[in-house]
Specification:
By secondary structure, this protein is α+β, with helices and mostly antiparallel strands. Helices cover 39% and strands 20% of the residues. It is built from nine helices and eleven strands. The structure holds zinc ion.
């Protein structure tokens, strides 16, 4: 038996005993005890075999079943690679449903609000994404924009992404400054997220007069496109989720009409070409120099075309999000 399975055994045993008790109680109250009988026998057998050889081992290939799969289903008898076509199809449907739910968390596309125009692109490397992207406009005219990247990828990262979404949605509107908002979100995220997960993010607030307050928690620097120049807004704090009491500060900037702010995740800047060069090193600044007068929608489109051309024939290895915010004025 592996150390990994042994380490989880006490939790699995408690979980299985809970199941057994619940099943016994349900069977007692139910007129149809037959439907509980089979499952109850399986749970009892699993409790008995816990700690013996054979528990946590795939009955098809005899390899150990992954720890994550066992904690999801302590009765699992097959590893993922030995799933039947029916089981794989069910898993695929599950991921499709998760993808749909994640899509519903995304903000309105091509938002026009109070002198600002925002366009974004959100694309996952796998079935679901660990990137975080949101826009919240308030009745008082303020526009909050958020972009982030949860460590890791796939389903685990997407669950944490939806947690970030819920945390910020519930805090925005409380009248906090962005640094205080990130501090509170960091505390909630750190308290509810197991190590070693964390998230880098940028949280910004845009006012009608072009003023922006930006807090960058360890994320790739947003770029300000102003008057033919490109300047970076560096991180002002650590990624969130690492330390509960972390303090954050913010940067104030003012955008004039026609200025743009470009935010992105490292799926863009770290996209690689066949020479193993990163897109963010030379090509991104060069492109922005050429086309910084494009409207937000066209700028995002042009960036995506360019990064695809750059990384041609290399499949995307990371989730990718790009957001362009343009001050169009009233
Ligand atoms: Zn197997």
């Amino acid at each position: 038996m592996s150390a990994a399975i042994q380490a989880t055994t006490p939790d699995l045993r408690t979980e299985l005993i809970n199941w057994k008790e619940r099943l016994e109680a349900s069977a007692k109250d139910s007129a149809d005890t037959f439907q509980f009988g089979g499952l109850l026998r399986e749970v009892k057998a699993a409790i008995e075999s816990l700690g013996h050889e054979g528990y946590g081992v795939c009955q098809v290939c005899h390899d150990l079943i992954g720890q994550a799969a066992m904690s999801l289903d302590p009765l699992a008898k097959t590893c993922l690679s030995c799933f039947t076509p029916e089981q794989l199809s069910e898993l695929e449907k599950d991921l499709d449903r998760a993808w749909l739910i994640q899509g519903e968390l995304l903000p309105k596309q091509n938002l026009k609000f109070n002198g600002w125009e925002v366009s974004y692109h959100y694309e996952s490397a796998g079935p679901v994404s660990g990137d975080y992207c949101d826009l919240v406009s308030l009745d008082n005219g303020e526009l909050y924009f958020l972009i982030g990247d949860v460590s890791g990828k796939g389903v685990a990262a997407s669950l944490l992404m939806s947690r970030l979404h819920a945390i910020f949605r519930s805090l925005i509107g409380a009248g906090l400054g962005v640094s205080e908002l990130v501090e509170r979100a960091n505390q909630l995220f750190a308290e509810s997220t197991m190590r070693p997960y964390y998230a880098t993010l940028v949280c910004g607030k845009a006012a009608t007069n072009g003023e922006m307050e930006i807090c960058n928690a360890g994320h790739v620097a947003p770029l300000l496109l102003h008057d033919g120049n490109v300047s970076a807004i560096a991180a002002t704090g650590l990624p969130i989720g690492m330390f509960c009491q972390e303090r954050y500060s913010s940067t104030q900037i003012k955008l004039g009409q026609g200025d743009r702010l470009l935010l992105y995740t490292d799926g863009l800047s770290e996209a690689r070409n066949h020479d193993d060069c990163e897109y963010g090193d030379d090509r991104l600044p060069a492109l922005l120099g050429e086309c910084q007068k494009l409207p937000a929608v066209a700028l995002v489109k042009r960036l995506l075309e360019d990064v695809s051309e750059f990384s041609l024939a290399r499949p995307r290895s990371d989730d990718l999000t790009v957001m362009a915010i343009e001050m169009v004025g009233h």
